[in-house]
Write a sequence for this structure.
């Protein structure tokens, strides 16, 4: 659920992987030894990074950077280089401990989950192709580094996908050694114009024209003003248990043209044991976390996110079917630049989890407060987003907005949910 940015040179993993979803996705990964799916929901991400004494032969490194402490900068670069190599090696050997040397304890656990998620997505191997240094700065016992990295994922079905993403690393000095404490990929959900193919399943409404596409988002997004609230009601879709995968339904503010994104919703994860439904919230770059609101297929759920004052945001979730509720006030600095109503295919590690067969999800009461005025989707002139696969085929397409100005559906097509080559767009 990473923020979306306008098309630009590749610069993934959404601001880290949702912690709550990572655990769930980890379970999915274990069940899926050879399946291509996504995580973050059933086998989520675990970007494991450890160390290697030799650089990967296939990787090209650009050494430009800035900092006043040359030795410290070199040490930071060495740790990141070894960490990337260790992640690939840990994956190939199925030995996550290789990533421990260059990561803090908390980040190591996240990496473990990330690799599990990559495995569940059906990846046979991962390989760092290029690593370009953008900037490195050191301040006492902390350091920041930015890189552009291209990773190549080879899937069990023989397909290959290259993903180039910007990585913002945070490192801390522990016992005299630099350790990575976080790796945020802020631009992994790029929305670009597309010509996706029409769905091959019946869309309950009139299919919206394909003017904007994404490899993991489908729904509507509005921009062009200051957004202080977003809300919608949807029916939790009944997901088929015949094909492993995941989906997330949510509303959010920010992330369309910015790196910030506050969001909340429901998700489904499909593994060999069935379908698990959960609720969650997320404030990028923090990981998402599950919340104690039980949901099941067919339940009506209403979610709203409203700015109270300053950086105080109220997230209110209600299961209209069971009358269960969850409300929390969080602190978050938002750009207030956009609002979204989305059905998502979760992302994991270096790849996407397969979009499950959710059938149709129906939204109603979709609206937002822009510049102090409550407005419907139609009044906001929200734009439709179609989710496409690596072949450019639509795999999830929204309908046009109904006559009430605030209702629409998103239909899962029969097209295969395959990885998209080139710059991969991810959430999450």
């Amino acid at each position: 659920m990473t923020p979306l940015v306008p098309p630009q040179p590749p610069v993934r993993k959404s601001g880290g992987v949702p912690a709550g979803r990572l655990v769930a996705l980890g379970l999915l990964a274990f069940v899926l030894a050879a399946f291509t799916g996504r995580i973050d929901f059933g086998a989520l991400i675990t970007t494991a990074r450890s160390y290697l004494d030799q650089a990967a032969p296939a990787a090209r490194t650009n050494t430009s950077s800035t900092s006043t402490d040359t030795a410290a900068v070199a040490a930071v670069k060495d740790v990141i280089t070894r960490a990337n190599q260790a992640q690939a090696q840990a994956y190939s050997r199925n030995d996550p401990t290789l990533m421990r040397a260059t990561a803090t304890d908390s980040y190591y656990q996240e990496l473990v989950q990330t690799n599990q998620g990559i495995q569940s997505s059906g990846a046979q191997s991962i390989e760092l192709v290029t690593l370009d240094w953008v900037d490195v700065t050191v301040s006492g016992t902390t350091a920041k580094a930015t890189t552009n990295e291209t990773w190549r994922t080879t899937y069990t079905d023989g397909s290959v996908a290259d993903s180039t993403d910007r990585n913002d690393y945070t490192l801390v000095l522990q016992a005299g050694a630099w350790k990575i404490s976080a790796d945020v990929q802020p631009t992994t959900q790029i929305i670009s114009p597309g010509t996706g193919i029409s769905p091959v399943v019946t869309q309950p409404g009139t299919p919206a024209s394909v003017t904007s596409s994404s490899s993991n988002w489908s729904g509507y997004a509005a921009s062009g003003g200051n957004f202080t609230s977003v809300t919608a009601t949807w029916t939790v879709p009944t997901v088929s248990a015949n094909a492993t995968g995941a989906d997330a339904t949510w509303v959010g503010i920010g992330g369309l043209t910015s790196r910030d994104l506050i969001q909340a919703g429901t998700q489904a994860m499909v593994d060999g044991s069935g379908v698990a439904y959960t609720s969650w919230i997320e404030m990028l770059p923090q990981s998402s976390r599950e919340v104690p609101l039980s949901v099941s297929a067919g339940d009506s759920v209403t979610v709203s996110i409203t700015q109270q004052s300053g950086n105080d945001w109220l997230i209110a979730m209600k299961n209209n079917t069971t009358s269960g509720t969850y409300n929390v006030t969080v602190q978050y600095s938002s750009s207030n630049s956009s609002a979204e109503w989305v059905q998502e295919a979760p992302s994991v590690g270096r790849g996407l989890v397969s979009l499950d067969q959710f059938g149709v999800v129906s939204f109603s009461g979709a609206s937002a407060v822009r510049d102090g005025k409550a407005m419907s989707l139609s009044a906001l002139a929200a734009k439709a987003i179609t989710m496409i696969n690596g072949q450019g085929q639509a795999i999830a397409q929204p309908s046009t907005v109904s006559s009430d100005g605030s209702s629409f559906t998103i239909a899962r097509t029969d097209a295969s949910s395959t990885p998209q080559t080139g710059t991969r767009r991810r959430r999450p």
